């Protein structure tokens, strides 16, 4: 489990095969802290470490993970967000993020203001039920608060420290992002559905 408070890392190599991709991720800060088998979130997608060499970590991405996330668009030198799992005695600085990307969505508009950026993202209609004003959402693994909901679009306010420390600063309108919706919303939906079935 993660919290959506991330650091920046870089894809240095991609080895593709019929069974999936092997990703090499460079992070001098994170690499010394992990070992083979550890879970690490890359742009919000939970991947397992298969090898560690100095500043580099190696991950395997299955065809399903590649297909359902922005990993399919990765190239060498792509900047990615990286996060280690939450520790039991650590701070929950963002919100509960599982590392299970629900979908990708298109950045429809970016507005750069003096002290913040405003990011508009088009949400697929299937997932509209999980977005709520002032609710939490993970974009490329970054925990953010929904600033506005309009039809099938959400607006997010990106503060300077988030711009500086994440790959959201490299986004352009028309690009895809990974989205994980709040797990509490999904559990609530399931409980309500079961209650309705029980009352039939």
Topology, pairings included?
Elements: E1 7-17, E2 20-26, E3 39-42, E4 45-53, E5 56-61, H1 63-68, E6 79-83, E7 103-112, E8 117-122, E9 136-139, E10 142-150, E11 153-158, H2 160-165, E12 176-181, H3 183-199
Antiparallel strand pairs: 1-2, 1-6, 2-5, 3-4, 3-6, 4-5, 7-8, 7-12, 8-11, 9-10, 9-12, 10-11
Account of the protein in words:
The protein has 200 residues and is mostly beta strands. It has 2 domains: 7-83, Elongation Factor Tu (Ef-tu), domain 3 (Beta Barrel); 103-190, Elongation Factor Tu (Ef-tu), domain 3 (Beta Barrel), CATH 2.40.30.20. The chain contains 3 helices and 12 strands. The chain has helices spanning 63-68, 160-165, 183-199, and strands spanning 7-17, 20-26, 39-42, 45-53, 56-61, 79-83, 103-112, 117-122, 136-139, 142-150, 153-158, 176-181. The strands form 2 sheets. Strands 1-2-5-4-3-6 form a 6-stranded antiparallel β-barrel. A 6-stranded antiparallel barrel has the order 7-8-11-10-9-12. The protein is globular. It starts with 6 loop residues before the first strand and ends with a helix.
């Amino acid at each position: 489990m993660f919290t959506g408070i991330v650091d920046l890392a870089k894809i240095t190599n991609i080895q593709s095969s019929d069974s999936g991709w092997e990703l090499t991720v460079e992070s001098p800060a994170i690499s010394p802290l992990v070992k083979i088998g550890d879970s690490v979130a890359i742009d919000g997608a939970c991947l397992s470490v298969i090898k560690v060499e100095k500043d580099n970590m190696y991950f395997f991405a299955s065809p399903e993970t590649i297909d359902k996330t922005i990993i399919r668009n990765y190239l060498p030198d792509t900047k990615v967000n990286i996060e280690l799992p939450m520790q039991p005695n650590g701070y929950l600085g963002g919100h509960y993020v599982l590392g299970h990307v629900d979908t990708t969505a298109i950045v429809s508009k970016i507005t750069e203001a003096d002290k913040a950026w405003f990011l508009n993202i088009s949400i697929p209609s299937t997932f509209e039920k999980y977005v709520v004003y002032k609710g939490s959402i993970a974009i490329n693994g970054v925990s953010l608060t929904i600033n506005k909901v309009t039809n099938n679009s959400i607006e997010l306010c990106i503060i300077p420290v988030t711009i500086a420390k994440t790959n959201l600063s490299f986004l352009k309108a028309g690009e895809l992002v990974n989205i994980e919706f709040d797990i509490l919303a999904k559990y609530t939906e399931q409980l309500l559905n079961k209650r309705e079935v029980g009352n039939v």
